[in-house]
Amino acid sequence: MLLLIRRIVFTIALLLASVEAWAQVSFTADAPALTAMGSPFRVEFTVDAEPDNRSIAAPNFEGFELLAGPSISTGHSVQFINGKQSSSYSCTFTYVLLPEREGTFTIGAATVEVEGKKYSTKPFPVEVIAEKSSANSGGKGASNNPESRIGKDDILLRLKLSDTEVYKGEAIRASLVLYTRASIDRIESLEMPPFDDFWMQEITFDNTPSREEYNGRVYETYKIRELLLSPQRSGEVVIPAATMNVVAQVVQSNSRGFDPIFGGRQVYHISRKLTTPEQKIQVKEFPKGAPASFAGAVGRFSLSAKMPEAEIKANSSDQISITISGDGNLKFITAPKCHLPESFELYDTKSVDNIKVTATGTSGSITYTYPFVARSAGTFIIEPLEFSFFDPATGSYTTLATERFTVEVLDDGKSSSETIHTGVFADYGGSMRQLNRDIRFIHTDVRPERAASLFIFSPLYWLVVVFLLAVFVVLFVLLRRRMRLNRNVVARRMRHADKVAVQRLRMAEKYMKEQNRHAFYEEMLRAMWGYIGDKFNIPVSALTKETIREELYRRGVSSVDAEQFCEIISRLDEAQYAPVSEGDMNSVYGDAVDVISKIESIIKH
Amino acid sequence: MKRYIRNIGSVVLPLLFVVFTLCAVEAHAADATTTAEVSMAEGIKAYADKDYAAAVDSFERVASLGYADAELYYNLANAYFKLGQNRLSASGRTFADGELGRAVLNYRRALRLDPSMEDARYNLDIAVDHTNDTEAIPESFIVGLWHAIANRATTNGWTIFSVVDLVVLLAALLCYLLSQSIVLRKLTFVIAIVALLLFIFSSAFALSQRAKLQDRGQAVVVCNDTTPVHASPDSASKVIRQPSQGVTVELLRAHGEWTEILFSDGEKGWIRSNVIEIV
After folding, report:
1. Which residues of chain A neighbour B62 with C-beta distances below 8 Å?
2. pLDDT at A506 (0 to 100)
């Protein structure tokens, strides 16, 4: 049931297709443009409609021998794509021709009648060449080995370069082409050479096979890859070999002449490794005399600019944009430098590109935008932006420049002092800089002075230092001597205290014997006070009984002895003016001698 | 007696001559001083009136009289900076006549004479911002601190400070050596140690400042815009850098009309001797 429906639909579709097909008829001829002497080739005339009488009027094949034909084949196909149906019909008339002599011959127009209307093909040329005989070329019947049926030169791989002497940055088109005289079954692997010194871009290409003469022989050619190379360094640049493995097909008659099943023919697959020869490219350095704005752009470019408004407000942003368009190494050009007046703040340049890669190189345009803010009012001149490129076709540099532009920056209404933005920072190449700072005012209250001589290590300096040191030494020596002297006097007095006391006591003893009471007590008191004063280096005026007790106590004399010492002094004081007997004098004298010798012994140890 | 008088004459006459000569020299010097003072005043007035070209002329005249004064160089640098900033060239460019280089040169001269001049340091910083001078290799913390302290005063300032320290040191030492009191001895000992350290450091700062003052190995690029620096003393050699006016470099050696220079970031190169001016 389903099958039936399908068949009906199919039939209807066919009918519709055949109706539609009448609309436009194409009639084409196809033949190799190049052929070799002795090798037959086919010329096909194809019409996509049913021709009247199923025949065409073939041209006169001048210069060729007609070996066979016409053989007619018809084809019909129907396609459904996304529910849409299309059909095609074709009728091909094939002639097999053999070249008779060398030269270029034109195969004239063939005509066909469809529905009474005449259509004709365009005449086309066929070049016939005499091939060189190659030792390795497939020897006819020379050997039965299928390997030997494909000669060394029968399959070749070539890297074709559009130019071998270019300038740095200029684009070269490189095509990897397979040349073959055998039928190629498949490509097994492909290894492209490393293009280290190039910037490389693959481009799309037309991959229809064609025929080409190479080394005097005719090959079928297949493009494998197409690249755009742009050398990045000057000098001799070597492109290493590309390698490819292909499998070729050889059809050989069976050695026995027949084969029970396949009709005496056998197919062999032969693998071949192909390498391209190394190629050298001379990359020329740019000639001298490059303009300052040249930064490696190679090609042919044009420059257009869009300047800001002629009048802009201070502290508002605006931009300059320039567009560089043309053919060349657009991907490698750098933004032209933009020099703006000092009070303009320039921000990072933005770029937008629209670059296409075609077989002739890269082309398109790049737009650079320079945003800026004008900080102060006034009339400013914007310097022309310059862009230079090298034209390899003429071998010379060209500099393009925008026009000099005058811009009027209007005051933004704020007073000038307010427009000074302290603390506005801009980033110039990584270092932060404060904008709108100004230098400080000059020093007005100054008198010009000659260079001051240096004080350090000057004679005066040494004089001062030596003087200070001398003063120090002199003061030190003098003061120390005086102090030492002082100390000596004291020490001597202390040393002699007991002797003095002894002398005074002797004196008193003498007065006692003379019964001179007044002198005796006086001498005794002097001996007692003097002893303590000398011994402890206390001025006599500062001597009291209290100080005596204190000093004696500090020097380790027992309080009993100290008390006794003071008591003797009291007795002497009292006795000096009181009428006392001789015995009193004796006892006081004895006590005084005792206590002094006691204190002396205690202090000494 | 007669002989004695003659002797007096032979002594007095040359003495009188010397006195008169000294007076004449003094008078001449006074003359120059007044000229310089007048020019200085004129320059200051011109600057205040925004006539920077006249200010530059006046200050340069004072400098040409042999005055090497930090204040003078500071004023001269300011005048150059303002002149270059305000006089736009035909192409709208500032500092078209090399004024920026001159300004940096004179700020550096002012700071060489008086490293403690804060205004000159501030203005130099602004001027250097207009050049393409590279960032100097930052000095270590200790070295930075040393320079920061040393730059608080001039050579003579530090020297006088060191002498005062010496006086304090010796006085304290005297007290310490001669005093009987323990407390006084302890106090004077501490004072003496502090004074000794201050004396050592201030002398070192004075020497450090003197070294800076006497260092004539610094130069400033003085040209109209930028000037090429070559890899070798040969104009055909590779241009390694394009310093703008006002870039400060160290001088290394001279060769013919070329001088080898060292940039603050460590790069070396050869420059024509006529585009640099020694600070």
Report:
1. 448
2. 87
